[in-house]
Amino acid sequence: MNATRIEDYEQGTSLWRDAWIRLRKNRLAVIGGMTLIVVTLLCLLAPFVSPYGYEQQDLVLGAAGPSARHWLGTDVFGRDLLTRILYGGRISLMVGLIATGVALIIGVTWGAIAGYAGGRVDAVMMRFVDIVYALPFMIFVVLLMVVFGRNLLLLFLVIGAVEWLTMARIVRGQVQGLKQLEFIEAAVSLGLSGWTIIRRHLIPNAIGPVIVYTTLTIPSVMLLEAFISFLGLGIQPPQSSWGSLIAEGVETMEEFPWLLIFPGMALSLTLFALNFLGDGLRDALDVRTSRD
Amino acid sequence: MWRFIASRVLQAIPVLFIVITLTFFLVRFAPGGPFSTEKAVVPEVKRALEAQYQLDQPLLAQFGSYLTDLVHGDFGPSFKYPGRTVNELIAAGFPATAELGLYALLVAVVLGMAAGIVAALNPNSWRDYVPMSAAMIGICMPTFLLGPLLVLIFGLWLEWLPVSGWGEVSGDKILPSITLGAAYAAYIARLTRSGMLEVLSQDYIRTARAKGLPEYVVVFKHALRGGVIPVVAFLGPAFAGLLSGSFVVETIFQVPGLGRFFVQAAFNRDYTLILGSTVFFAVLIVVFNLLSDVLAAWLNPRLRAGLGVK
Fold first, then answer.
1. Are the Cβ atoms of A227 and B144 closer than 8 angstroms?
2. Would the CB atoms of A246 and B281 count as touching at under 8 Å?
3. Residue B237 lies in a domain
4. Which chain B residues have a beta carbon less than 8 Å from that of A139?
5. pLDDT tens per residue across span B98-146
6. How many CB pairs (< 8 A) connect A and B?
7. Among all residues of chain A, which has the CA nearest to that of B274?
């Protein structure tokens, strides 16, 4: 009987339920989330959504503006722009997710270890973060891509390596606070190893800010990828991402402006949606990040 | 105060050392050297070139002599622009970059603070939503998209402003400055709004209003001073970011600045020019971060007391 009462109590006020209710009330965040779902589904199902192939050319048609047959027009080879945007979105979203994953793993591990170890280890690890923060990022990204050639795996690593720092700081702050609580003391007195405590007790309890910051990292990662691809250092043809589509569009924007405008809209819309969802999650989970 | 500044300067030294070391070895371990062109170079010529630029010596010796030169303010010769030193190239490119950065900062501060103040004074009304949505667009719109779009609209369709160039035709500095400053204007708007909202709810603002002071005095004399501290703290990193992040804008608008040199140097594998410009940018970033920390500390009485300044 006692047990059921505790379950009821937990169900009524759990952090996640509260957060979910608050999030659903935030109209902008809901619109952002739904936009993301739609964009992702469209990109994933591109072969079924679009009647045209990614490389399917129509040289007779050439570059044509939006029409009933090609909703967003075609490029100079007569390839359907909507189809290319959907396929490009797959790459952009994939880079966004994987590179954020890299940043997440490095940042959470680094921050949790620094926060839990404390003392000199903490000082050295966080000083390292401070130093890397002061590096001219953009310049290093360009440098790395030029130096090591243009491959997709490296792109993930480079972006991840640049974006993990804030995550490490956030997790460290959380862990430092949690470390003082009794349940960690209990875990220590039970004889659990430091690594188990970090993995099983500290990280799961710091998950709220991590989720919020992850949502906000994805757009900046996607922006960075688009930027690298725009410079011609990222995604290479025949593959394309939104960044490289924009770069192609700029070349011919005077004659065929739709080739610039529509890929640009796809990228901006997705970033917009992610930012609104991230801000909404932050309010819902009541987290303060260093964003403003 | 001087102790604070001195300790920050001391902290900057390891940062710069790491930047130099990282860049130096990164560039050296890169496949392909500055002289590996499409044409096969005669081995003797290649050896002579390498001797001239000390590339035949052990790596650590090269690093040592580079560091020694650097301490004397000498960035060495350029590999790709024969007869020119990196110092000359930086001196040639930096004025345009600095000017562009300054105008962009001006755009960012004026637009951003105006939008932020208007939004904070009318929270949750259309005067809040409109500027803040514009700020969100500014954050989500990368420079390499905004720049071409502005060129398309104002340069090609309306024909109001020149499409590219820097200081050649009147008005050609407007579009690059706006393009570069837009994202920063958006951040400053958000910072100003949250800073002002926090200050406006404080007791001393209520006191000022209760005294019957006109609203503009309350806002501009009393609230703004506290509300802009986060903005001031952001200005240093922002200016550093504007300088080191301007190469896309410089490329789009063909501004003859340092950023364009850097991109070309990276593609050409011009070792010394890459190194030189990276170190130069790193120094700028460190210096501006330092300046804005000091300025923010000076503006905030609580922090000032902590620094031992009366």
1. yes
2. no
3. yes
4. 244, 262, 277-278, 281
5. 888 899 999 999 999 988 888 888 877 888 888 888 888 887 788 888 8
6. 110
7. A143
Cβ–Cβ gap A268/B262 under 8 Å: no
Total number of domains constituting chain A: 1
> Model-level pTM greater than 0.90?
no
Any A CB within 8 A of B222 CB? no
**Structure confidence by residue, pLDDT tens digits, B245-285:** 788 888 888 888 888 888 777 777 777 788 888 888 888 87
pLDDT band at B301 (very low <50, low <70, confident <90, very high): low
In a domain, B293, yes or no: no
Domain span at A189 = 25-289
Contact A231 B263 (CB under 8 A): yes
Q: Quick one: which H or E segment has residue B85?
A: none
Nearest Cα residue to A43 out of A100, A95, A79: A95
Determine the structural domain holding residue B138 and report its residue range: 86-261
Task: State ipTM.
Answer: 0.74
In a domain, B254, yes or no: yes
Which CATH number do you get for residue B200?
1.10.3720.10
Contact (Cβ atoms closer than 8 angstroms) between residue A208 and residue A15: yes
The CA–CA distances, whole Å, from A54 to A41, A51, A79, A251, A280 equal 17, 10, 7, 20, 35
| Average pLDDT, integer, range B217-246 | 80
Q: What percent of chain B has pLDDT over 70?
A: 87
Answer whether residue A6 is part of any domain: no
